[in-house]
Here is the input.
Amino acid sequence: MSAPILEAIDVAKFLGQGAGRVQALKGVGLTLVGGELALLMGPSGSGKTTLLSILGCMLTPTSGTVLIGGQSTAGATAEDLAKLRREHVGFVFQSYHLFPTLSAVDNVRLALDVRGEDAATSRAKAKEAMAVVGLGHKLRSYPRELSGGEQQRVAIARALVANPSAVLADEPTAALDTDNGQTVMSVLAEIAKSSSRGVLVVAHDPRIIPFAHRIIHIEDGRIVGTEPGGAAKSNAKSNGKNKL
Amino acid sequence: MSLVFKLARRNLFHDRLRFIATIIGVVFSIVLVTVQMGLFLSFDRTVTTMIDHADADLWIVPRGTKCFEDPSLLDERERFRALSVEGVREATPVAIGFAQWRMRTGNTTPVFIVASDVRRNGLHPWNLVAGNLDDLSIPGAVAIDRSYFNRLGSKGLGDTAEIRDQKAEVTAVTSGIRSFTTTPYVFTTLDRGRDYVGMMPSKATYFLVHLTPGANVEVVRRRLNAALTDAEVLTPEEFAGRSRSFWLFGTGAGAALFAGALLGLIVGTVIVAQTLYSSTKDHINEFATLRAIGSSSRYIYKVILFQAVLSAVIGFAIAAGIGWVIVKATADTALPVVMTPMLLVSLFSLTVAMCVLSAITAIVQVMRIDPAMVFTR
Here is the structure.
C-alpha cells in the first residue's frame, strides 16, 4: 500500500433545511490509499452514501477537509468538482447507470469523451478496458443485451478507463446473484492491486468481505471502527507461510 | 466523432412518437412561416409591379398620393407646366381606375384599367405571350393576363367583352402580371382607358417624366416641385416605397402576414420546447450520470443543443419540401407564394434559432441536476 489517494479530515455534513435539517456526517476521518480495496459498511441512514458523495466530489462538506490527490475541495465550484471527478475518480453505481442507447464500448468511451479525448484513442482505450473486465467479445452489445453482471462490469470498465486514482463503488453487487457478485468483486479487487489506485466499496453484502483489505464501519454519521478484511487476512497468512 | 452527437441523435430518435411530435411541431411552424413570408414577399413585389415596370425617370403624382392605385387626378395643365421645365423631355400621361368587365355571358367582374399612349414611353403591358403592343391601337383593343382568363370569362385573343358599355377586344395577352388585390389588370390606350373609367380627357392619374439626356434628376425634380401646384414629384424608388409602406403597413395587410408568421414561430417554439423538455426529463438519469462521471455543463448543453439543431435540420428539410410544393402550386395564382434563396437561408436560420431557443427550458432543467442523485436511483 502507498500514498493517500483520498482523505476526509473531520468531515461534517448537514443535509436539508429548517426543521428538516439533519447532520448526516459528524466529524468523519477516512483515508484511502493506493493498492487498497476498502469496504465501507453500515446500516441504512448511517451516512455511507453521503460520505461517498463527498469523497467523490459530488457534494462538499459543511465543515472539515477533503483532499483528493492532495488537492482540497474547499471552495470548489460545481465545475471545479466535475473537473476533480474527471481527473481522479471513477464511479460504479448500484444500478449501473449505463446509457441504453449506446453500445457497451461507447458507454465506456463516454468517460473519455467527457475528458475531450479524441475518438480513435478513446475507442482503443475503451476496448482495452472492456478486455480487462472480460467483456472484449461484447463491445457492440447494448445494455439490454447484457446480464446484470455484465452490465456492472461494463460500468467498472467505464470507471477504470480513464485511469482514475480512486474508484468509488456504491453497492456494486446489490443487484447481482452470488456468481455475478463474485465476478464483479474479483474485477474490483484486481484493479485495486495497482499501487496508484484505491478502491472504496460501500456495501451491506457480507459476501464481499473476503475481497476487502480493510473494513470501515460507519454508524449514525461516525466511523465507529476499522478492521482488516479478508484480503488483508489472506495476505497476512500467505506472508506468514512465506516466512515459514 | 465525439459521442455528443451520437448521444443527441440516439436521445432524439429513441422515443419515435416524441420525435415525430417534435418534427411535426417544427414542420407546422416553418411551413406556416414560409407561407406567410412567401406571401409577404409576393405582396411586396406585386404592390410595386406597375411602378417597377413603368418607363419613367420621375413620377408626377397628385399631392398626397399613397399608392399606385390611388384614384386622385391631375390636370393636363400640370403636364404642360412640367414640359416647360428645363430638363424635361416628355411627360407621358397615365390613367388608371376601376371598371366593370361585362362578359358575353352577361356576368360582370371588376377590373383595374391601366392606360397609356402606346406610341410613347409609358406604362405598357410586358411579358406579352400573344399579340403585340401595336395591336392595342386597334379600336377597343385591350391586353389581359392569362392568369385571369377564368375570372374574365376569356379564352384569349379575339375574345370580346364590354367595359362601361364599350367594346373591349383582347388583342394581346401577358403572363405573370398579377394584382395583389386579385382584381385583373386591363391594359389599353390612354383615350380608351379614360373612357373605360369615366375620366375627362383633360385629366390623368400620373405623368411619367422622361429627362433630356444629361439632365440631373434631383435638379429637375426641384424645378418641377417649384413649378407644379397640386402635384408631387417622386423618383420611382420613392413611389414604390410609398406604395409598399401603404399597402403593407398602412392597411394592416403586412402586419397580418407578420402576425401569422409570428404565431407559427410561437407555436413551433412551444412544441419543440415541450418535447425537448420532456426528452431531457426522461433522460435526466443519464445527464446526472454524465455529470457524475465528470462531464462539464458545456458537454451536456452540447448534447441538448445538438438535439435541438438536429430537430431543426430534419424539420426544416421536410418543411422546405412542403414549401416547394406550395410555391409550385401557387405559381400561377393571383397571389403566389414566393421563395427566394435569401428567404430560404433566413428560414433555416430562423428554424435553428427557434429550436435552440426551445432548448433553454431543457438546459435550465439540466442545470439543476444534482450528480449525487445517481446514488439514489
Remarks:
- Chain B has twelve helices and twelve strands.
- The mean pLDDT of chain B is 88.
